[in-house]
């Protein structure tokens, strides 16, 4: 089984914190969609022995696409790839794009899962992030969305300066009250070369506080558990049968291809990435060339990848799999290097699987990097 990710690199406006590749100009949208279809055709051999079980429209803002544009991309996938009977097909969307008319279009399309970028239900937070929607639109959007879709996830951001614990709890409660079955939640991070990075450096915006972010994370874990969600990945909480199949395939190391500018692909032994430039991407594909670079992953790279993804999830890192797929000393060294974190109560070994403890969850990425093998 494998997945296909399609990157739609367009947004109405730039969120201050975002470091994803996108353009606020839609001038080249038609050309780019044509090139996405071309790339899907050129790369079909990469997954010729695989069956596609998930399709994910990410971005950027995929909800800027018309139903006809979505249909043309899905037709290209079905034409060139083997797809299971009922694949999970996710579309990322922003509340300001989702009118009732848009929901009707999407409900009548093969899209069966919506990922809605709410981020916060409070006006102050949305303005500080430069989001295109407001609080009222966020709530109206979910009111309508839940009438048309059952499989909905919302994005929420915590660790926002001046967001009290009470306001964060209220953000979560609003999401619970709408009956959503999945929440993806991330700490506000100051990424290099973003507008937010510039604001923090120039004293125009306070730097996020890690202690506050940790308090918000603990609240997130506790409140989602009370409301029947499973914390199955460090940033993802789903009710049973509502985990993201597409993202879960990433964390379990399944093969996927990324289509579009800046999109990444993975095949266990290799990783590739497309140029993060719309004009270059279009030019290369119009000339029949693939605009990407590739690297072969060493055994150390593959091991580190498995550690990084595994420790973020409830499935952990299987010591049996380490023993079967890597050199003899990999397991021995992992047990040795993880010992101090086990003693500190950050990691635990259960059923021959290395996992983070509740205390260690927030530190999962840092713990993984401490256990990496260096070439």
Describe, in short, the structure shown:
By secondary structure, this protein is of the alpha/beta class. The chain has helices at residues 29-42, 67-80, 100-107, 123-129, 135-148, 165-177, 195-201, 210-226, 245-251, 278-286, 299-310, 319-325, 328-343, 364-371, and strands at 2-8, 51-59, 82-93, 113-119, 152-158, 182-187, 230-233, 236-238, 255-259, 264-266, 270-274, 292-296, 317-318, 347-350, 353-356. The radius of gyration is 21 Å and the shape is globular.
Describe this structure in words.
The structure is a single chain. This protein is an alpha/beta fold and 375 residues long. Helix content is 41%, strand content 22%. The chain is built from 14 helices and 15 strands. The protein has helices at 29-42, 67-80, 100-107, 123-129, 135-148, 165-177, 195-201, 210-226, 245-251, 278-286, 299-310, 319-325, 328-343, 364-371; strands at residues 2-8, 51-59, 82-93, 113-119, 152-158, 182-187, 230-233, 236-238, 255-259, 264-266, 270-274, 292-296, 317-318, 347-350, 353-356. Strand 7 (230-233) and strand 8 form a beta hairpin. The longest helix has 17 residues, at 210-226. The radius of gyration is 21 Å and the shape is globular. The protein starts with a strand and ends with a helix. The mean pLDDT is 94.
């Amino acid at each position: 089984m494998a997945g296909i990710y399609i990157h739609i690199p367009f947004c109405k406006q730039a969120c201050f914190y975002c470091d994803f590749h996108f353009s606020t100009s839609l001038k080249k949208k038609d050309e780019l969609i044509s090139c996405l279809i071309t790339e899907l055709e050129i790369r079909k051999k990469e997954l010729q022995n695989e069956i596609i079980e998930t399709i994910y429209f990410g971005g950027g803002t995929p909800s800027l696409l018309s139903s006809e544009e979505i249909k043309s991309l899905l037709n290209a996938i079905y034409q060139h790839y083997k797809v299971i009977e009922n694949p999970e097909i996710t579309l990322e969307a922003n509340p300001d794009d989702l009118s009732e008319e848009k929901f009707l279009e999407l409900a009548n399309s093969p899209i069966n899962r919506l990922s809605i970028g709410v981020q916060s239900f409070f006006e102050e937070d949305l303005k500080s992030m430069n989001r295109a929607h407001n609080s009222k639109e966020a709530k109206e959007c979910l009111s309508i969305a839940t009438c048309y879709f059952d499989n909905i996830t919302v994005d929420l951001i915590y660790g926002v300066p001046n967001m009290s614990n009470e306001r964060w709890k209220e953000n979560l409660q609003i999401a619970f009250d709408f009956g959503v079955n999945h929440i993806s939640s991330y700490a506000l991070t100051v990424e290099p070369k973003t507008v937010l990075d510039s604001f923090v450096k120039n004293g125009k915006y306070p730097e996020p506080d890690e202690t506050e972010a940790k308090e918000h994370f603990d609240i997130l874990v506790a409140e989602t558990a009370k409301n029947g969600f499973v914390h199955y990945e460090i940033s993802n909480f789903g009710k049973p049968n509502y985990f993201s199949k597409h993202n879960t395939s990433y964390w379990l190391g399944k093969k996927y291809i990324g289509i579009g500018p800046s999109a990444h692909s993975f095949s266990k032994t290799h990783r590739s990435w497309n140029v993060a430039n719309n004009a270059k991407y279009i030019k290369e594909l119009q000339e029949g060339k693939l605009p990407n670079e590739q690297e072969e992953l060493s055994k150390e790279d593959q091991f580190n990848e498995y550690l990084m993804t595994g420790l973020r999830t409830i499935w952990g890192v299987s010591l049996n799999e380490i023993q079967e797929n890597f050199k003899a000393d990999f397991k021995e060294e992992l047990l040795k290097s993880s010992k101090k974190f086990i003693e500190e109560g950050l990691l635990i070994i259960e059923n021959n699987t290395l996992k983070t403890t509740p205390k260690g969850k927030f530190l999962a990425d840092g713990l993984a990097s401490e256990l990496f093998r260096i070439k």
